[in-house]
Structures are given as structure tokens and as C-alpha cells.
Amino acid sequence: MARSAAKRVRRFGRTVAGVVLGGAGLVAGGAAAVVAAEKLLVARMRGRQDPEIGEGFGTLRGTPCTVVTDDGVPLHVEVDGPEDAPVTIVFCHGYALDQDCWHYQRRDLTGIGRRVFYDQRSHGRSRRGRPADSTIDQLGADLHRIIEATVPPGGPIVLFGHSMGGMSILALAQQHPELFRGRVRAVALIATSGRLNQVTLGLPAFLGRAVDAAAEPVMRTLAWQPAIVDQGRRVGAELSFLTSRMLGFGAGEVSPALVDHLDEMIRRTPTDVLTEFWPALSDHDKQEAYAVLRDVPTLVVCGDRDRMTPIEHSEHIAAALPDADFVRVPDAGHMVMMERPAVVNEALRTLLARAGVRETPPAPSAGGGTPPTIDAASP
């Protein structure tokens, strides 16, 4: 009986993980047709008044450049603000996203210094890396290259990281603790984790464990035919929209335009990139980096409805960093900086003030032109 029950739990886990992780890719194989109920639900959501309909997600751009990593991968980077700004803020995005997830921070935090936005390797406009290099340690090394290439020598740095971007910052802290003894003036860790050994997706514990156990084989299955899965992701628009709404955001009303923005970023990330990075997330453990951050002004932010990196992970970071500011955002989900931008931006301003960074009126950006290529080995 126990063996039979365990088998049923594993089978249930594979089903849930397949829907959540495979998303609309299941449509391509005929396993999950887009039913009328999904279309009706999405139509009702889209039929509500949407204050964000004309927000222009994905249209904010900076001066582009290319930073070449230590293993030769060109990363797409955009810079806002003057070169002689007193501080450079580097924004590190998360898994399956790109730099456009920082839309509200890019729009509203224009007077905080020089701002650097970049797409992680294999994400957004950056080039693909080798599958074997799809690791958190490599993302930390990439971040170091970004700093070398875009921050004036010896200049002060502030690091903002969301989800996998926060993990990249922790990897950097392990690899280059000397940066955090003076140059790194402040760190924000948003909806992230020091050790992500299980993703429960907000399910009860035993179901969450089943999903987590099933995730790796599901990812291997998706990796067999990524082109077919990608085609299915494009076809299954309603299922994809609902999955993005469920996993990205918390309770309450969420702008359909905002959900579309998140969904488009996720859909632009190829399935094989999702499968390549999944083991790095499930094996992630950078808790030793907390010691490096203890003397650095740090902000920890998380929504209490986060299904991807549950708030317990942020609570663990805050407990290890007793001097950190901890902001719990009620009813918000994983994309808390998109869902509650006013709350997150105010917390970021408070962090910068704590680190001695004064907000000033924004200077005109010198955007446009042909993107230069920067080999960070010789900035």
C-alpha cells in the first residue's frame, strides 16, 4: 500500500510539474488542449479595466554595449546615466526573464546614479553559452565581468538582484569577497534564496515535494524536443498566460498587460535554456556568502505569496544578516518589483540613503548609436 501511494504521489508530481514547468509546451504534443474554460477565464481577465494598458513595457532603452565574458559569451548591456555619477547600480535579473523585468525601477529610479542593466547569458539579447556553463557560479563570474567593464576603476557599486540575479550576487560575493570590503556599498536581494533545494509552487508540503522530485525528469523530457515544445508554448496562449499569472504574481487584481509582459519574457526564453539552468537552481547553495554581506547595507524583499522562492527563504537570509532591512510585501508574488513597484522602489531608495547615495534629478541619457563591444578582460 505504501509503495502504491508513493507511486501515485510521484505520478501526481509529474503531472503538476509538467503543467507548471512545461506550460503550453504540452499543447504541442496534444496532451493539454486549450479548453473553452481557459479562454473564457482569460477573456474575463482581459475585459477588466487595465490602468497599465499604455505603459509601454519593454520600450525603455539605454546606451547599448556588449560585454564579453571570460568564456567568450557576448552579453547585451544597456547603461543609463553619466559616466561621472558618484555610484553605479547594476541590476541582475532572474531565471527565464531579461532586463525588461526592471521596467518600473528603470522608469522611476532615474536619479540614483549610473544604472547598468544586462541580460544574463542565454537570456534576452545576450548570446547563448555552453550548457555546461549554465551555472550560478558562472553567472557570478559574468557579473564580475560586467562590473569590470561598466564601473569606473575603483568606483563604488550597488547591486540589485531578483531571484536568480540575487543568487548571482551571492556567487560573486563568494568569488570576490574583496569587492564587498569597500566598493560594494549596498546590496538588494529581491525574491531570492541562498539555498534553493526545493520549489513547492505554494502547494502543501507533500505535494510540493512530489513536484520537486518530478521536475528534473520533466525537464529532461522537455529537453528532448525543445523546438516542438517551443512551438507549443507559442500556440497555447491562454494556458501560458494563466501559468504566468499564477507563478508570477500574488493575490488581488493584476494588470493583464503586466501579465502579458511577464509571459512574453518567459516565452522568449527557449525551452532548452530553461532545462539547462534548472539543475543549477535546484543545486544552488550560497549560504556561505552571507558572511561576506554582514558589513554591507543589505535589503531583503519578498512577497508573502511567492511560489517560486517562498518567503521562508528570504526570512532565512534576513536572520543570517541581522542588520539587513527586511521588507515583507503582503499578497505579492515572485515578481514583486513588477507587482508592487511603489513599495519596492521606496525600499530601494531607503537602502541607497542608508548607504550614503543621494537621489538627484536625472541627467539626460546619451542613448543610441552602434553598440560597442567591451572585452571585460581589458576594460
UniProtKB/TrEMBL annotation:
SUPFAM superfamilies: alpha/beta-Hydrolases. GO terms for molecular function: hydrolase activity. Pfam families: Abhydrolase_1. This is Alpha/beta fold hydrolase. Transmembrane segments: none annotated. Keywords: Hydrolase. Coiled coil: none annotated. InterPro entries: AB_hydrolase_1 (IPR000073), AB_hydrolase_fold (IPR029058), Carboxylesterase_BioH (IPR050228). It comes from the Bacteria. The keyword Transmembrane does not apply. Residues 88-341 form the AB hydrolase-1 domain. The lineage of its organism: Bacteria, Bacillati, Actinomycetota, Actinomycetes, Streptosporangiales. Residues 358-379 are annotated as: Disordered. The keyword Thylakoid does not apply.
